[in-house]
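This protein record is not my work; I was only asked to verify it. Where you disagree with what is written, explain briefly why. This is what I was given:
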Amino acid sequence: MKDTYQSITKPSPEVLFKDRNSKFFGYAFPIKTEEEANTHLEELRAKHHKARHWCYAWQIGKEDFQYRANDDGEPSNSAGMPIYGQIQSFDVTNILIVVVRYFGGVKLGVGGLINAYKTAAQMALESSDILKRTIDEIFIVKFDYPEMNKVMQVIKKNNLNVIDQKLEIDCKIFIAVRKKDADDIYSKFDNTYKVEISKLED
């Protein structure tokens, strides 16, 4: 079971690829929603308002992926898909890559464009911090205050990640568990007397 994914932690530095007077500026951004992608695109359109094309690709998700590739006026599949190909090649997600082109007066042809957009995207990814993360299940553990000791023992023994808690007469603890360990941890709490566990649905 694959329970890890890779993403970037912060925007990449600006990179530049040149071919026959055309300039291709590459950028990579961490994103979680299409709205975030659109915000970054608007900012780059404002920053590079004299550019000719703002081509991009993004992918969102940890297991079920959504993606989009956009040629922004370049010949079909000469920009967006080569950029998306680098997202797949580097095996990253929750990411937007934008390549901004300033036309240099010489046509590059479809092959030249594919190479330029692919290279600028690759350079942006190579200059990014790519981190591997685990895919986690979030559980809510519910119990009355007297059962606290039992619950905390399970948490400590299994080195579980507590992400939130409400400790009153009726207690709730939210834990994040790596997907491959989820069934095992669920059964440990489920078999503990007077303790309820349920999965927090997305």
